[in-house]
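Explain the record.
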Amino acid sequence: MTVRLVVADDQALIRAGLIALFTAAPGIEVVGEASDGEQAVAVVARTRPDLVMMDIRMPTVDGIAATRAILAGEHRPCVVALTTFDLDEYVYAALSAGASGFLLKDTPPQRIIAAVHTIVAGDLLMAPRITQRLIEAYAERHSSPAAAAPRLESLTARETEVLRLVANGLSNTQIAERLVLSEATVKTHVKRLMGKLELASRAQAVVVAYESGLVVPHLRSRS
């Protein structure tokens, strides 16, 4: 399968470099580019890509607002946030908005290519430790368990447990082993809980688990 991709970055040199990288990579087709968030939303609506590489900090409309607008639309591609620093509140906001993951702009080219296929396959892009370190750094400021917990009331007990394990960094395979279920059943639970909570990505599910108090920073179960 060819991954159809849009690159959005206000720095022309970085944008051109990413486009050249993806154009040369087998299995990836660049179908559009944008220099700000407003353009990104329009390009995505026109080209309907599988994935958007989205710079977080851009003029006019930033990458966070653009991510929200794109994922609120009829066509909902995966969005990967591009950033300079991993422990960045802007990255947290992008994940909260539904981005599937983030990449540092100095990530080696082959890892960027691999990340595209990882995200489109539905897996978490970031290593669990990095995801949890980032989310823990900001979740306590943004969380309001008393207000957020009702969001989880629509979940079954099994779906709640699956969400907890997702937030602890377990893959579908690991969750299946932990709960003695088939991997297909785990995927179904993940799909259903994300639908009930109106989540756009697995990373966003991790954010919700922390903000709701389902997983407590520094007290999460060891895996």
Remarks:
- The first strand starts at residue 3 and ends at 8.
